[in-house]
Predict the structure of 30S ribosomal protein S16.
Amino acid sequence: MLKIRLKRLGRKKQPIYRIIVIDSRKPRDSRAIEEIGFYNPITKTYEINLEKAKKRINQGAQTTKKVQQIIEKLKN
């Protein structure tokens, strides 16, 4: 099963996340199938390729709560 979730990068207490498509059985920071965006919680900036996200969701990928919130903000 595919998941669209966050992959943590950055230094200690300065996280930056990439929004990735990955197999749900893999660890959080393992190799992704596809990177479709990023999220910076410190500056509250985010970017996601909605076309790629919609394509993966139509193929059956599930999103996490945080990724779903980011997608909803970009749609508005």
Notes: The CA atoms of residues 39 and 45 lie 6 Å apart. The first strand starts at residue 2 and ends at 11.
